[in-house]
Known about the structure:
This protein is of the alpha/beta class.
Amino acid sequence: MVHVGVDLDKHTSQIAVLAGDGEIAQQRVPNDAARLAKLLAELPPQTPVAIEASGTWWWLVDLLEELGHQPVLSNPKQTKAIAAARLKNDRVDAERLALLLRGDLLPTVWIPPVRRVNSSGTASSSSGSAA
């Protein structure tokens, strides 16, 4: 089974694809929905994709769901505590997310079923509570 970790930054994403045999392929791409959709469409259906719940995660979750994948939001504080590394960069972060996801060790947070973005750029559920 394939597992994916995405280190989502403001303008780019580092994507680590962990194949069933343990081989990892990495790619850095601009945060352009059309380009990401093309790349993510190459993954098997229902691929689990780990993303840290920080910044503007909501648009990527929406894209993953539209493509038929399984987005998993990680709790950034707890993830850092589990995957502490001396070397810290986007490649390492993306790989750690994929590895924790594969091992069922990724601390997750809830994704509201209906999302909208308020004026501050924060996602909220339809009831108005912050995500």
